[in-house]
Amino acid sequence: MATKPFKVHKRLLRRVNTAYPCPRISQEWLRTTVQDRVNTHGHQADFNFPMLCQEISDAIEGSSFANITEPGSGLSEWVTRDYTHVLLKGPVVLELVHLTDVGISAMTLEGVRQERERQIYLDRVGHTSNSQEGRMQRELRWVRPELEPYPRRRLKLFLSDGSVELQAIELEHLPNLELGVTPMGTKVHLKDVEIVGGVACLRKKNVMVMGGIVESLQKLHHLRLYEELSRRMDSEESDAGMEGVSPEELYLEHLNIGDL
């Protein structure tokens, strides 16, 4: 006798659809995930509906939209075109796949990136090596400074619905987003956002950071940041040489005339 297919409780389905209206979470993924959590925790006496909801929320935040959303249920491709000027009413929830700062020269950002990599390397040596350097790092790790923060002037975000990627620029300081701190895969809720030339213009009132982290996106971001800064440094060196200024001075001039 065939068993009936597992069904997601309507109340849970409403919660998920309300939290993630666009793009929509795949019903098949949701059904499979709920069934897995029920099979794993259902025998526990204290496992209840709020706990199940939290399990599903954590699973969504820890997954890439490319794997869990319904294709075609998110952004339209035309939104990203350079001729597009429109109000994205939303609400939409996108995930952060890349982050940089276009208000700071790539030379400066790359210097910080390399210093952070050096600090991470020393931390790994201190935890895995029996060399004199490793022992010293283990002994001194409690006084080791935190990773050097990136300077900040104007963040540029790359947000995705799982298939379409939208560039966004902060017009006001967004306190819950920070290069080198905010993980890729973070889900970001947008509402009433102006799109100018295919770029979303972000203000605090239009943005809510929901959280999340996706390790695969984090790895891609590190590679993407390295490649992006390399390209930008080449361009900055060329432009600065033509104008007889340093790359940093060139960037300040760009900021002053509103090129960014």
Secondary-structure map:
Layout: H1 10-19, H2 27-41, H3 49-61, H4 65-68, E1 85-88, E2 92-101, H5 106-128, H6 132-140, E3 155-160, E4 165-170, E5 187-190, E6 193-196, E7 199-202, E8 207-211, H7 215-243, H8 247-256
Helix pairs in contact: 2-3, 5-6, 5-7, 7-8
Protein name: RecQ-mediated genome instability protein 1
Family: Belongs to the RMI1 family.
Domain RecQ mediated genome instability protein 1 OB-fold: 85-219
Gyration radius, rounded:
22 Å
The run of helices and strands is: HHHHEEHHEEEEEEHH
Residue windows where pLDDT falls under 50 for at least 5 positions: 138-144, 256-260
Strand content: 15-25%
Which structural class do the helices and strands define? Answer: alpha+beta
Number of domains: 2
- CATH homologous superfamily classification of the largest domain: RecQ-mediated genome instability protein Rmi1, C-terminal domain
Helix content: 40-55%
Distance between the termini: 65 Å
